[in-house]
Amino acid sequence: MDTERQQSPEGAPEQERKKEQIKDRGADINYGIDDNPPWYFCILMALQHYLTMIGAIVSIPFILTPALCMSDEDPARGTIISTMIFVTGLITYLQATWGCRLPIVQGGTISFLVPTLAILNLPQWKCPSPEVLAGMSDVDRTELWQVRMRELSGAIAVAAVSQIVLGFSGLVGKLLRIITPLTIVPTVALVGITLFQHASETASKQWGIAVGTTAMLTLFSQVMSEVQFPGIAYRKGHGLRVIWFPLFKLFPVLLTIAIMWTVCAVLTATGVFPEGHPARTDVRLRVLQDAEWFRIPYPGQFGLPTVSLAGVLGMLAGVIACTVESISYYPTISQMCAAPPPPLHAINRGIGIEGFGTMLAGLWGSGNGTNTFGENVGAIGVTKVGSRRVIQWAALIMILQGVLNKFGAAFIMIPDPVVGGIFCVMFGMITAFGLAALQYVDLRSSRNLYILGVSFFFPLVLCLWLQEHPGAIQTGNQTVDSTLSVLLGTTILVGGVLGCLLDNLIPGTPEERGLVAWSKEMALETVSPGDTLQTGGIAWEKNTFDFPYGMQLMRRWKWTRHVPFLPTYKMKL
Fold this sequence. Notes:
The protein is mainly alpha-helical and 573 residues long.
């Protein structure tokens, strides 16, 4: 090849172009998707993914448990966090090994909080007055939140069946024909916008700490993201060596929580915060003291899940939002890991496994579903380690940590104003992620602006009114009343449906609607098992998305070519 380049100087620009294309797809990373780093290096990198996941998942119970009517000092709050971590480990391993086979962390998501709060806002699930709660025995108080958890568990598990069917049946490709950027924007962005009130309530318990938390997180993640710190790393052919890595870019949330938590501890010890103040670090000390050291989560640990039509249909909104979000992540992760674009069978399988994970999360009693963690995707881009094996180790760490109930209880002790400051950033980033899909559409079009305005504003107006008037819908049938109240009170569902209907019904050119640019981003293809995928002049390994076992037997069976989630799938979209 060197001789050939010398004889053909005019081919040099073409070679450089191909090098740039490979580099753009992450081929300059230290470990690619199919590489297996040394076990000790895997453990170090897995710990990083674990810590990144903790920073994202710890905030969910701070909104979920109060809506369940759970006491601030109830040790079961730690159990819920441990359950989330345990289930995250199970599904992450399953997804990375047999699902889409991308190095992603699959766990709890804020997207499910919106329908959850809509369901718990129904008259039959609203919490009793503080006076009534204070007069309840411990047994009655436990049953009060567990009956609500059972309702959420059943709704999440049954709603997840739709995602399982959507993925394993191959309907994802057909769904993407009607899920356009103008559908994605309100569906995802309204998740963050809807939760702003909870951020306000939590942050307002001590605005100084909350604003300091937001400012510090902004400083670490944006201003100091390129500041380098020394560390030890291993690279093939080089051994151990000292490297400089962006500490603040890798762990901005954890560093912010640790520092502000310490500040609150100092202010607590010096008596600045009086007894019982929500910013004190000892206000929930009983949670840590009463929590068990070891506890293995199991399905139905809070009782047999119950199912209602209103709950199931409401949770479908969370399923749809998570499906859209995960699909948009897959091409990005593949590019970062120097992997080929994910074929259709891998996307089908990924969505199907995500649905299976959400069903398990419901049955286990986490009160939440599963989705791709964007924070861990960012960690791959920073560390340049996209090995699937690292994520499998991280999943093992999560499973082991999930049985340490004391560890989960410790995170419940984070002061509320610190969490409120984190909310102000996290919910804003979720909104921004949804708005990012606007890059594909023509914002000079009055048609598109009309669709955006209606799909954003109308859901907020309708859902706020329903929250203030919970008994407004009266059809004479309680089941229908509850179902309509949940559906119309879930902003992401109302906004997503409005955006989808308006964009597909109002005339507009493909370029104007962003379909041309979106189709290039979501290029779904099927690759035959014996073929080599060519993308931009790059030849990719044909077995990246194959199963780890059983491929030879599968290739002998011709019928497997017609199964949408198997690696031998050959049908075109």
